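Lab notebook page, bench 4
Experiment: in silico fold of construct C2
Operator: M.H.
Input chain length: 328 residues
Purpose: comparison with the prior construct
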Amino acid sequence: MSPPARTSYDPLAAHAAIRAPVTGGCVPGLNDAPAFSLTAPQRLRLPVLVAVPHAGRAYPPTVLDRMRDPALAQLRLEDRHVDRIGVEIARQTGAALLVAQAPRAMLDLNRAEDDIDWDMVEGGCPADRAPAATGYRGNARARSGLGLVPRRLPGSGEIWRGRLAPEELAARIAGIHRAYHTALDQQLARIRDEWGAALLIDLHSMPPLRPAEGEGSAPVIVLGDRFGASCHHGLISRALSHLESRRVLAAQNRPYSGGYVLDRHGAPHGGVHALQIEVCRATYLDRRLAEPGAGLPGIAAMLAGLVRELGAEAAMLGGGEGLLHAAE
């Protein structure tokens, strides 16, 4: 199945002066619904792109029909409504915003294309496909059930009835994964060319953490930089200082250091910095961790302040010329 022309659509050429979302990619089985939306004005106030890969809720009926427990799978797999926080951050800071509409259940954008559990695909691994490298971390993750297409949930078992057709898997990779990451590449390159540096904020949410031994409270924010590999150390230092000054409990790289998105797009020596932010769901959702709660505006405002700080730091890393934009 060939992806529709929408997947090759270049959002950077589409009336960028107007701050209105443009779309790209395709969710197979949902009448060519877009896989992502991008809001990017021609002139950004900060060299920042906020990306939200795991909050998509565009489920084709056939996908829901194959789920053993659709309500539970959606609740467990989605970064529930964290896209609303992303929208508020972009509105309050002037950052660009990329939001996946395709659900994580169909394809996880924070996994590599070859991070596939072939046992869940009809016919298994094709004979002409090169085997994954021995000890490859992503392949081990796929075998655990959390690969490119999630197979099982810890404590809940198998997600799906039956196996996935190889043609459907190929359509998802082309229409969702490649389209999203191409748009991300293009937008980060545009920001870096304009400002001298670009900062990707990969926005996620996490279940409430347990306090560490001897601690009374657990972090509500976890910052991931792949243990220093995906962004300049000044960015993570400024982020931690900013949060500490506001008495926001935060951790670095434990238990989330980032994944494929940071590995692929973070290139500090090339002027592209990538930082993952995990937000505790209890801070902005209701008691069931299912719907937006009273805390959402406050958390969004706090994170918008953090993004402004990091955007200023990124502009300095780019040489400082871009700060003229922010002052206008």
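Observations: Residues 1-18 have pLDDT under 50 and may be disordered. The CA atoms of residues 223 and 252 lie 5 Å apart.
Next step: discuss at group meeting.
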